[in-house]
């Protein structure tokens, strides 16, 4: 394990133009208000949701115009599929989530079984990405960093479980670990790109600096319910996910044709139209975290909805339908397909979607998902295990940490190299130098004056060239001839954006 000496960060010699914030047509570059993770979720902050403006009713009419009959037929078929899937999930529980040992990444048979499960369920676990000793060492290092810097913010404020830390030594070293970078590339290889001219590289992971969690037994403050990251209203908006037609088949009523693993349609997406705390300016193929503790179901851990494409289709179509009779009138028959029809008068309601926040879901707004039954715990994880879930996967956490020891993770998503991601990386590099929060997150001084923050000299001398590139600190090898031409073009473009050209 690396022996670290506390030191303030020093100036790094950035390439030409690298200090200028990038601007793109699709993502906002304005600084966000000061805050914490509760800013992202009305259910955590207690913020009352306001009705959406009438333009959303016009949007809904346009989305399904000319396809109303097919959308209705697709909706009824979807409800039948959800009933069947709910029974399967209830029977299998946590065992429905595929697993693979890091040492088996090259085992064809085991990889194939894992791939099939991942594609269907949208979530998976890679065991033993780093050693337990190393992962526990990172937790100890993070705890010392927090103790040395009592100004560190977190949520809940009185007894934090999630810390507003982005550049602690533990996080930097974990993101840079070669095993983790290899795991991210492996997971992203399960996506495909139908547009052969699209500029994207899944073999060059890009670092997205996120928070860390150290949740203590008994905590009920970080009671994060079912939600989907990457914006909310943007999923319906034409200048949001509509830019790539990501969900166009769903809005035509052909949800069975929706492919959640197609990457090229997501490249033009704007998922952060409102510059809010729930927006994300990067294309994260997978949300993910690296475990720093031994944690089992009910012990303050992750819960996921392993329905992926069907659940996505449901929450996107839900705003177009209304029940003809309430549950108090007809009881269990409330969920029957014959009780649901297209809205008589199109409303502006997008259940659980609020501009600037994540997409939240619950039993009342999304009754057919059966969230009480379909939100399953991930199996027990050990320090060094990596858990990843598709960017459209519904997920949440235990409302109460009923375990006897901490539930600790570092949030480390898997992001491909794209033009938009390189633009974000350029902006994020500045926040690394200054010790301020990553651009997508609440602003403020952050770790700018924290003791023990790693110097850039240390980082450049102690992480691999691959990790340096993932942080935007080193030039990509654009001269490689063992990669497809479009990937080589992506490396060239990234070098231009990052100022290395």
From TrEMBL:
<dbReference type="InterPro" id="IPR027443">
    <property type="entry name" value="IPNS-like_sf"/>
</dbReference>
<dbReference type="InterPro" id="IPR010856">
    <property type="entry name" value="Gig2-like"/>
</dbReference>
<dbReference type="Pfam" id="PF07350">
    <property type="entry name" value="Gig2-like"/>
</dbReference>
<protein>
    <recommendedName>
        <fullName>DUF1479-domain-containing protein</fullName>
    </recommendedName>
</protein>
């Amino acid at each position: 394990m690396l022996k670290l000496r506390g030191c303030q960060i020093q100036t790094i010699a950035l390439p030409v133009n690298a200090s200028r914030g990038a601007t793109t047509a699709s993502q906002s570059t304005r600084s966000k208000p000061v805050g914490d993770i509760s800013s992202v979720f009305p259910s955590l902050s207690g913020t009352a949701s306001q009705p959406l403006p009438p333009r959303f009713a016009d949007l809904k009419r346009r989305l399904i115009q000319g396809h109303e009959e097919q959308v209705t037929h697709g909706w009824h078929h979807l409800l039948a599929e959800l009933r069947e899937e709910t029974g399967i999930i209830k029977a299998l529980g946590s065992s429905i989530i595929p697993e693979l040992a890091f040492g088996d990444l090259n085992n064809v048979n085991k990889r194939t079984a894992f791939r099939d499960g991942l594609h269907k369920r949208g979530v998976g676990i890679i065991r033993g990405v780093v050693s337990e000793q190393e992962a526990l060492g990172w937790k100890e290092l993070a705890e010392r960093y927090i103790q040395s810097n009592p100004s560190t913010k977190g949520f809940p404020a009185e007894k934090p479980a999630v810390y507003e830390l982005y550049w602690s030594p533990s996080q930097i070293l974990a993101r840079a670990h070669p095993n983790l970078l290899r795991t991210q590339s492996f997971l992203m290889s399960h996506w495909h790109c139908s547009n052969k001219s699209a500029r994207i590289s899944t073999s060059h992971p890009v670092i997205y600096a996120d928070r860390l969690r150290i949740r203590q037994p008994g905590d009920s403050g970080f009671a994060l319910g079912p939600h989907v990251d990457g914006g909310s209203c943007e999923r319906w908006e034409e200048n949001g996910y509509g830019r790539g037609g990501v969900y166009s088949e769903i809005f035509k009523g052909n949800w069975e044709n929706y492919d959640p693993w197609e990457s090229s349609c997501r490249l033009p997406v704007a998922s952060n139209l409102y510059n809010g705390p729930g927006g994300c300016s990067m294309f994260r193929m997978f949300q993910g975290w690296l475990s720093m503790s031994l944690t089992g179901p009910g012990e303050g851990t992750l819960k996921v909805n392993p329905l992926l494409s069907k659940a996505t289709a449901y929450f996107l179509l839900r705003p177009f339908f209304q029940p003809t009779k309430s549950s108090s009138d007809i009881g269990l028959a409330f969920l029957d397909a014959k009780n649901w029809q297209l809205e008589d008068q199109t409303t502006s309601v997008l259940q659980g979607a609020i501009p600037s926040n994540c997409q939240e879901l619950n039993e009342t707004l999304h009754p057919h998902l059966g969230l009480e039954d379909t939100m399953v715990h991930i199996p027990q994880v050990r320090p060094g295990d990596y858990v990843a879930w598709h960017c459209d996967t519904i997920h949440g956490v235990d409302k109460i940490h009923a375990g006897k020891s901490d539930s600790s993770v570092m949030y480390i998503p898997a992001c491909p190299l794209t033009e938009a991601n390189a633009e974000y990386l350029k902006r994020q590099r500045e926040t690394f130098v200054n010790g301020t929060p990553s651009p997508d997150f609440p602003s403020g001084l952050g770790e700018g004056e924290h003791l023990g923050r790693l110097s850039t000299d240390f980082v450049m001398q102690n992480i691999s060239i691959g990790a340096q590139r993932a942080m935007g600190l080193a030039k990509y090898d654009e001269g490689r001839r063992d990669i497809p031409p479009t990937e080589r073009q992506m490396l060239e473009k990234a070098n231009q954006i990052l100022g290395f050209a």
